[in-house]
Amino acid sequence: MAVCAIVAAIITTVAWRKARERANRAESLRAELSNQLTQAYELPQVASSLGVPKRVAMVYNPSKAATDQAMPLVMQACGLFGLSEPKLYETDPDDSGFAAVQRAKDDGAQLVVVTGGDGTVRAAAKALMSSDVQMGIIPTGTGNLLARNLHLPINDVQACISIAFNGVVRPIDVISLDMLYADGTRENMVSVVIAGAGYDAEIMHSTSDRLKAAAGWLAYTEAGVRNLRGKRHAVTISTDDGESKRYRLRSAMIANCGYLTGGINMVPEAAIDDGLLDVALLDPRHLVDWIQVATAALKPKTKSPRVTTFQARSCKMVFEEPLVAQIDGDPIPKTKEIVAKNIPDSLQVRVPLPKTPNERE
């Protein structure tokens, strides 16, 4: 009988503990659900306090696979914040999104969420610069250069959408570029990261689209190695202080900020909101120089002696012979002349909230 009593006591204790655990889980789920419902109820007020614009547009590149994931999440975010459904604008391959963003702006959008690669982001920047319309970025390209420089979570669509609605607004500079092409035509472009002519552009022009689809940004490495050997080019550069100087080099770049793919910081001193553009001139002569340039680019605040840099508010580059060129990683026609000017704080971009002291540690 004593044994039976002990067994009964054990069974009773186990049953009581299981019942207690179930009750605790139920209470935990009830509290979590209550918290979620409270947050959902309060989100419109939270949106107002965060300054989330009421009229949202989404401009998207339909060729990007992540678009199908992003679109319902943007709609869901608008619903949670008590906003009207976003207006949707599809980009056109002929202009990479400028016309779509301009339509969104003309229709009264206060926040344009841009889903696409560097070309789409740059087209959006051109349409939105010098306006009060804010831009959120969902990077879906190969390089995603502006997103990297703004410390957006490149491979997390949902987190980028959260930043577009919950982040803070950061004014950044835009570089205006007046281009004179080899055929004599002129065009005004903008850059938000780096524009250049010479070796850097040769990489962009010769990178295989098929390899980019398969290997992502690593495809640029293959093109970079393939184009290491090449001749130097003559360029005359004048800045806003009136100084004019002739150089012979492999690559001439105009930077708004310096981070590229693969952890490379091509122009460490470049700041995206300092009102200045940074000119970087690469002149490696042989393989050892190239290794030195690459090593310096991978180390914070390290500069190679084969890279000359200086800052200015504007500059003019005249090439002795037309060179292939690129803007923010996208190839453009051979260029004879570039006139660049920094337009300070001209683009309003949604970026992550600043880290707290504990998060920095």
Automatic annotation (TrEMBL):
One of its GO terms (molecular function) is kinase activity. Residues 16-43 form a coiled coil. Its cofactor is Mg(2+). PROSITE patterns: DAGK (PS50146). Pfam families: DAGK_cat, YegS_C. Residues 51-181 form the DAGKc domain. Keywords: ATP-binding, Coiled coil, Kinase, Lipid biosynthesis, Lipid metabolism, Nucleotide-binding, Phospholipid biosynthesis, Phospholipid metabolism, Transferase. SUPFAM superfamilies: NAD kinase/diacylglycerol kinase-like. InterPro entries: ATP-NAD_kinase_N (IPR017438), Diacylglycerol_kinase_cat_dom (IPR001206), Lipid_Phosphate_FormReg (IPR050187), NAD/diacylglycerol_kinase_sf (IPR016064), YegS/DAGK_C (IPR045540). It comes from the Bacteria. Belongs to the diacylglycerol/lipid kinase family. This is Diacylglycerol kinase family protein. The lineage of its organism: Bacteria, Bacillati, Actinomycetota, Actinomycetes, Micrococcales.
